[in-house]
Amino acid sequence: MEAPPPSSDPYKFLNITLNSDGSLTRHREFPKLPPTEQSKDIPLNQTNNTFIRIFKPRNIPPESKLPILVYFHGGGFILYSAASAPFHESCTKMADRLQTIILSVEYRLAPEHRLPAAYEDAVEAVLWLRDQARGTINGGDCDTWLKDGVDFSKCFVMGSSSGGNIVYNVALRVVDTDLSPVKIQGLIMNQAFFGGVEPSDSESRLKDDKICPLPATHLLWSLCLPDGVDRDHVYSNPIKSSGPQEKEKMGRFPSTLINGYGGDPLVDRQRHVAEMLKARGVHVETRFDKDGFHACELFDGNKAKALYETVEAFMKSCSSTGPSPNM
């Protein structure tokens, strides 16, 4: 008798149980790692139990001013943490490889905190960075890792999977906000998590994918979207549901990098988002590797190396052309 496909029981596949009070029991997660000499945790909102894990490179050249990368981890909005081992280790490597200060944001998870809670936490992290740059936190004291060692005019916002979705939605929310002296020069959406009621071609073709089977992604959306809406809600399907106001705002996004893999069921939606932004006049760079699967860079060193090289080249190109006048 053949084993059932991975999509046969999405709760079992995701190792979660939905409790009667609407919360989740998460049965198996990645181990959480404490900060190291290269990282430290800064409280963001103690009421919401959110924080920022700051990563710095080793061997920083003296007198250097490093760029900043605000990072949002993946997990379908319901799983994982900035302290989860794969994301902690990835940010440590990126800080070294990119010679960048990384701010990895611990945001609230659904279904205990449905969207837009994660977006609100992400915006709060961006505003925290702005206030650090302005010296308006804790009586004017800027964090010592940021005070003298970063260039606030070279800021990038990056996310993977659900974190890539957060990047898009944060940009919509801060495009009209005065962030000076912080300048967001670029957005980086890595394998961004978007959805819709009608399956895309790649979702249909890869419906029994071992990482993102279609019933599991449908369950993720049902657990994280606001009560009473479907997958065509603007949070998950901006292509179908964006109104005139959202379309006008996305036209003012800074340069955007969209990265994806041919073996990811979500890849067609990532392509469609790239096309949507290009149609609004955004400078969009895309890298779609024929090989690879969802989150492959967390487990495949060669894929991670290629991603870091792509991100590094994008950051350098943005820095050479200057920041968007709107962000």
Automatic annotation (TrEMBL):
It holds the Pfam family Abhydrolase_3. It comes from the Eukaryota. One of its GO terms (molecular function) is hydrolase activity. InterPro entries: AB_hydrolase_3 (IPR013094), Carboxylest/Gibb_receptor (IPR050466), Lipase_GDXG_HIS_AS (IPR002168). Keywords: Hydrolase. The keyword Transferase does not apply. Belongs to the 'GDXG' lipolytic enzyme family. This is Alpha/beta hydrolase fold-3.
